Amino acid sequence: MIKLKIFVLLCSLFLSFSLLADDYEHKQNKNHIYKNLDYLNLSKDQYKEIKEILIDYRKEYEKFYKKKAKREKELQELIREKKFDKEKYENIAQDIHQEALELEIDTLEEIHSILSASQRKKFSYYLWEWRVE
C-alpha cells in the first residue's frame, strides 16, 4: 500500500511539473513582439478574419481615445472648481472605464471565436497586451 501511495505521489508531482514547464515555456518567450500573433500559427482564413477584427478594433480604439480625452478634460475642470463634486467625478471615471472594458471584451470575444483551443491557450499568456487603458 505504501508503494502505491508513493507511486501516486510521484506521478502527481511529475504531472504538475510538466504542466508548470509548459507555462514556464510560454512566459519565458523573450522574442515575443507586442500584439504579434505569429506564435498562434493562424490559418489563412483565421488570419484574414482576425485582420478584419483588428482593423475594426483600431477604428473603435481611436474613437474611444478621442472620447476619453474629452472626458478627461471634464475631470480636470471638476478638479479646478471651488467645490469638488465627488459623485460627478466618479460617474465620469466609471464611464471611461466601462467603455474601455466593453471595447476590450467585444474585441476579445471576436478573436476568441476564431481561435482553436490550443491557440486560445497560447493567446491567454499575452492577454495583458489587449487591455484597453
From TrEMBL:
The answer, when asked if Transport is one of the entry's keywords, is no
Q: Which InterPro entries match?
A: LTXXQ
Q: List the GO terms this entry assigns under cellular component, sorted alphabetically.
A: periplasmic space
Looking at the Swiss-Prot or TrEMBL record, what is one Pfam family this protein matches?
LTXXQ
State the superkingdom: Bacteria
- Residues in coiled coil: 61-106
Identify the Gene3D superfamilies for this entry: 1.20.120.1490
Keyword terms of this UniProt record: Coiled coil, Signal
Signal peptide limits? 1-21
Protein name, as recorded: Periplasmic heavy metal sensor
